[in-house]
Specification:
This protein is mainly alpha-helical. Helices cover about 60% and strands about 10% of the residues.
Amino acid sequence: TRFDGIQLNVCGEAIGAGKPMLISDTQTLRRLFPSGTVFVNSSDVSAIADGFIRLLSNRNELTEEMRRFCQDMTSRWIQMRCRPLLQRIGLTSIS
């Protein structure tokens, strides 16, 4: 997308799969996906190509960043959503 304020669903799939991303450089996407990501001006074909080269050149580092980001997001989801829900319905909290 070239528009700010839009969250791309495919980004969530990339996080879950542990894959680095090449996405548009918008404030929203930078805030939501700060790790394992190469941001590019999606209106500029050369910038997209350069970003893809950066992604491939740094694939291992970006993949590790994405793995850590996924673990962090999962832990936060469990703490903020899962545990309170389980406690509210009277089930034992998960670890």
